[in-house]
Structure formats: C-alpha cells, structure tokens
Design brief:
alpha+beta, single chain, globular, twelve-stranded mixed sheet
C-alpha cells in the first residue's frame, strides 16, 4: 500500500472508529495580521464586488482575533456517543456563549446570557418531557443532523482534506499520550471543498497531527509565508467511555426563556 492510500485510510477511519468521544480543544491566533494578509490574497482570486459581504464579516472577525482573551480566541467542548447523543459547548473569549444538546429525538439549543438578556433556549421538548415530534421519521432526521455535525467539526471528520488538499506524511510520534501520525497538507485552489471554512483555504500549508488509532484530528496549524497564523489543538480526549444519559439532558430553570420549536 502506498503513502497516499495509507493517509486516505487513516482519515476515513475517523467516520466509524469509536463508540464515544469526549474532546476539548482551543483555537489560538498567533498572527492576526498574517491571517488578514492571507485572506486578502485568497479574496483577490474573486471578481471585485462578488464577495463584498463575506469580506466585511471576515474583517470584523480578524479584528476580534487581534484582541484575544488570554491568547485563546475560542474553546470547544464536545461529547458524542453514537449514534445520536451529543453535547457541544462553545466558549468565546472566555465565556460560554452557545450549547447544543441532542438526546435521540429530543434537542436543546441554548444561547447563553449576556448583561442585556437571559439565556434563550430553543427546544422540541414538551413540559412533560416528551418531544413535539412523534414519528420514527423524526428520529431518523435527527440522526442525519448528527452526521451533519460530524462534517462541521474538523477534528472529528478531517476527510474533507482528501478532496481539497495534497497531503504528505511527516512521520509518527505521540500527542496527548496517544500514538499519532504527523502530516503536512497544501490547499489545491481548483478543488476547494464547500465544507472547509476560510481557515482551510487561505494558508500556504498546514501542519496536522492525527490520532493513529481513530483517525481523529488532534492538532492543526495554518502557515502563511513561513509563519503560523492559527493553532487549533485538542487539550484532552477520551475515547469509548460509556457516557451517562444525564450528560445529554437539560432542565431549564425559571430565569431561562424557552421557545418550543416544531418542524
């Protein structure tokens, strides 16, 4: 088996290699100015005015990246138990801002409080604990959404890199006391994948660390003109522990505003 096939099999393995995962990771922006330069270079490939709104949003985000909280822009806590239980928490600039929970056919999305408003919760869970949708078709639909989540989380599903990057092996080692494979990837402009965000398109190259047993991405950094712009790194990862049901439940309190959603 050649090197390309080994890399492909390693990344594809992430789709079904574990029963559960608990992972915490952080994004740190080393060089916001370089990030902006890299983004401008990528934008120059498009017709003037065709992505004006996109550029405005990215500029605002880049400005925030230059005003980091304790050097860390974002932290994420993810707990996933196959086939359809997960908890996703986003901590932005040191404060929890967003939580999404799914427990089979029941779900909650929480926008956490600020000084100006209380927590807002969107859910399909009725006051009696049942869900507002009652069919097996609904359960199947929620599982599909679980798969969408896996596609959105770079760490859990790095297979999109096979379509959009050239990937080269860089040896083996350990990371978080686990055996890992070190890779280098280079974007292919003509094969940009719609699932990859800006961060996977604008760098000259990327350093990757992949868990050898599961194919899960544990670390990556983006590089522009020889300088690291962004580092995204797992801080802790646990595979295949049985996760108690209570982790995937939410009982709103009196000071939280709840909106019942049916679709």
């Amino acid at each position: 088996m050649g090197e390309a096939d080994e890399i492909k099999n390693l990344l594809i393995k992430s789709k079904a290699s574990f029963k559960s995962i608990q992972i915490k990771f952080k994004r740190r922006f080393q060089a916001p100015d370089k990030y902006e330069e890299a983004f401008d270079r990528w934008m120059s490939r498009f017709q003037a005015g065709s992505v004006t709104r996109l550029k405005q949003v990215a500029r605002a985000e880049t400005k925030e990246k230059s005003e980091e909280f304790d050097g860390v822009f974002e932290r994420t806590n993810l707990i996933f138990q196959r086939p359809d239980q997960w908890l996703l928490e986003i901590f932005y600039r040191g404060m929890r801002t967003f939580t999404k929970i799914m427990n089979r056919d029941r779900w909650w999305i929480v926008w956490h409080s600020t000084l100006s408003r209380p927590d807002h919760i969107h859910t399909n869970v009725l006051p009696n604990g049942g869900s507002s949708e009652r069919s097996e078709r609904r359960i199947s639909k929620m599982r599909m959404k679980t798969e969408y989540l896996l596609e959105e989380i770079d760490f859990l599903s790095p297979t999109f890199l096979l379509e959009s990057h050239e990937i080269f092996a860089q040896g083996e080692g350990t990371f978080l006391d686990r055996g890992c494979v070190r890779l280098r990837s280079v974007p292919i402009p003509s094969k940009e994948n719609r699932y990859g965000g800006f961060d996977w398109k604008i760098g000259d190259e990327y350093k990757l660390i992949v868990d050898r047993e599961t194919g899960v991405l544990l670390y990556y950094s983006s590089i522009f003109e020889g300088e690291e712009m962004e580092i995204c790194s797992a801080e802790e990862v646990i595979f295949d522990e049985v996760i108690p049901e209570i982790k995937f439940e939410l009982n709103p309190t009196a000071n939280q505003k709840v909106y019942l959603i049916s679709d």
